[in-house]
Amino acid sequence: MITTAEFTETLAHFATGVTVVTVADGRDDIGSTITAVASISAEPPLVMVSVRSDSYLAEVIDRQGTFAVNVLSARQKAVAGRFAAAGRPSARLLLASEPHQRGEHSGALVLTAAVAALECEVAQRVVAGDHTVYFASVTALPRVSGAADGPLLRYGSRYRTLG
C-alpha cells in the first residue's frame, strides 16, 4: 500500500517535468515522451496522463490497462529526444544504454536514473478532443536514483533544467 506521504513526496519531483510513459505489450515495449501528466489525488493516489487518441501508445494502454510514468532527470535530455522522435524503434532499443528495470506491477520499463517513477493502472479513460485522458491509480513507486540531478523541464519548445 502506498502512503499519502510517499505519494506526495514523489509528486514534488514531477509537477512540471518531462516524462516518458512506457507500457509492456507482450511482443514489445512502447514508450513516448509526454508533458501532460498531473497529480489528481493524494488519497487515494491518482494521476492523469493525456496522450493522442490516434497513437499506438493509447492503443496499447487501452489493451494492457497498466503503464509506468518515468519523470526524467536533467541528465536524460537525450532519452526525452529519443522517445519524442517520429518512427522510433522499440523502447527496449531506445533504452539499451540506459539503466532500467521492469516494473513489478505493470511490467513496463522503469528508468533507474529517473527523478521519480510511478506504476499505474487505468481507472478511467475520457476522450477529450484529439487526446485520451487516463485517470490512473498509482500501484507502486519503484526505486530510482536521479532525484539529486533535478527534473528535466520543457518550456518554450526546449528542454531545460532548474538553476
UniProtKB/TrEMBL annotation:
It comes from the Bacteria. GO terms for molecular function: FMN binding; riboflavin reductase (NADPH) activity. This is Reductase. It comes from Thermobifida cellulosilytica TB100. Residues 11-161 form the Flavin reductase like domain. Keywords: Oxidoreductase. SUPFAM superfamilies: FMN-binding split barrel. Pfam families: Flavin_Reduct. One of its GO terms (biological process) is pyrimidine nucleobase catabolic process. The keyword Oxidoreductase applies.
